[in-house]
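User: Some background: our group keeps a shared notebook of sequences we're curious about, and every so often someone picks one and asks for a predicted structure to add to the entry. Today it's my turn. The entry only has the sequence so far, pasted here. Could you supply the structure so I can complete it?
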Amino acid sequence: MVQANIVLLPGDGIGPEVMDVTVDVLNALGTKFGHTFNFEEALIGGIAIDKTGNPLPDETIRVCEGADAVLLAAVGGPQWSDPTSKVRPEQGLLKIRGHFGLFANLRPVRTYPALAQHVPLRPELLEGVDMLIVRELTGGLYFGSRQEQESGEDAFDTMYYSVPEVERVAHVAFRAAQGRRKKLTSVDKANVLASMRLWRRTVIRVQEDYPDVQLDHVLVDACAMYLLMRPASFDVLVAENMFGDILSDEASVLAGSLGMLPSASLGSSTFGLYEPVHGSAPDIAGQGKANPTGMLLSTAMMLRYSLGLEAEAAALEKAVESVLESGARTADIAAKGESYISTKEFAQAVKAAL
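Assistant: Of course. Here's the predicted structure to add to the notebook entry:
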């Protein structure tokens, strides 16, 4: 029996909706397998700005420091969308990743035959698509050397990487590839950027520790094209922060909806931050239309990586897949004119499948 302390960060928009049903499913899973999950809720994002003036209050950090893992739903919304504002919801995401040293973001992408009609690619291109995108999370253009400048006439950001930063995420990617099909694609822009030439040199050197893994290099613009031309050719991809962000969102179309994809943000310990790839979707908030799949599969990743509960993680993933195969659809994955079920009803179906 496992007893785990889990912090919930529902955030904004559809965040509270997908979080509520996920906790319900997680409690059912705990009952089935004999585990106890203790939950504590805290603020992040726009709601934290409204209540405290800070997108990541000190109290939230304190609560998370005492947890085994953190589940985060979504942040942001139109009322906080001014990019010139000094305080923005996404600052909370960057701060929590940096504070806990969560340098590797794992984003699995796979296709579901039952949802093939929702993917704007020929069906034969989707056969065998099962990839893992490893995104470096605390360096690169989003963090740089903590230098940024903006005035009325010009602005700049810095893409900065050190060898240790690249080494640690490369090791994560190589180890992941060893447990899969032993193919790693390193994404860079080494033909233009000095930081990416350092990236490539370092990844090549790290490969010496993993002679059983095939290493390929691809420029980020070519990778964006190949994801749509031959997506099944990829196994594990490792990429700089912004490149990984963009490519994983592009790859979400292969699964049928952005609402389908989970992610795990990990550091050097078992502690992790788990969140769906989708945003806060304020246009459908409070309507019961949100797809909880990404949140549920993120929870499965938490069970696997932070709590060491592989059988439980697999059971949850299988339950979600069986519900999709049964024809259950939320609004985002329903064909035109096809009926769909609510966020809560989808989660209830997953509980029944468990």
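Suggested note for the entry: The mean pLDDT is 94. The chain has two domains: 1-103+258-354, 120-255.
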